[in-house]
Specification:
The protein has 1 helix and 9 strands; from the N terminus they run αβββββββββ. It is an alpha+beta fold and about 150 residues long. The strands form 4 sheets. A 3-stranded antiparallel sheet has the order 1-4-3, with no helix packed on it. A two-stranded antiparallel sheet has the order 2-5. Strands 6-9 form a two-stranded antiparallel ribbon. A hairpin with a 4-residue loop joins β3 and β4.
């Protein structure tokens, strides 16, 4: 079961060169040995520590004092201070960083009426401010399960 293959131009020259090279290697006794690789080793790498501290439901933790680095340039940059954000199941510290716009100071906390808890297993997570890209946005408080 042979099939005729017609090579034209460069393909024919490449095929002939490959055949000549293979013949030369065989005639000189040159052998190519497959490279041996060591067997894979399974290791357990511990997860890196979280860069952001996380706190379970309850009162918002005390602010973390951050020292701002130098601004990226001399004009138009403002330091956006770090602040706590509620991340659905825990408090997460949002690090301070430089933004290329004017930043007003974070407004005071809004006093909210939480009402009675839905159950004894719920804890009130008070509202908090978060940076919304061009200004501070109030995120209202909510009841969450402990």
């Amino acid at each position: 079961m042979y099939r005729n293959v017609h090579l034209h131009g460069g393909g024919r020259r490449l095929a002939l060169a490959s055949l000549a090279f293979t013949t030369l290697l065989a005639a000189t006794g040159c052998a190519v040995r497959a490279r041996e690789y060591p067997a894979p080793v399974e290791t357990t790498v511990p997860a890196p520590p979280s860069a952001e501290p996380e706190y379970p439901p309850g009162p918002m933790p005390a602010p973390i004092v951050e020292a701002p680095s130098a601004p990226p340039s001399t004009s138009g940059w403002s330091w956006l201070p770090g602040h706590w954000e509620w991340a659905g199941h825990h408090w997460r510290w949002e690090r301070g960083h430089w933004v290329n716009e004017a930043v007003a100071p974070m407004p005071p906390v809004v006093e909210e009426d939480s009402g009675p808890p839905p159950s004894s297993s719920h804890v009130w997570i008070r509202g908090h401010w978060r940076w919304g890209g061009h200004g501070w946005v109030w995120v209202g408080g909510t009841w969450v399960l402990r």
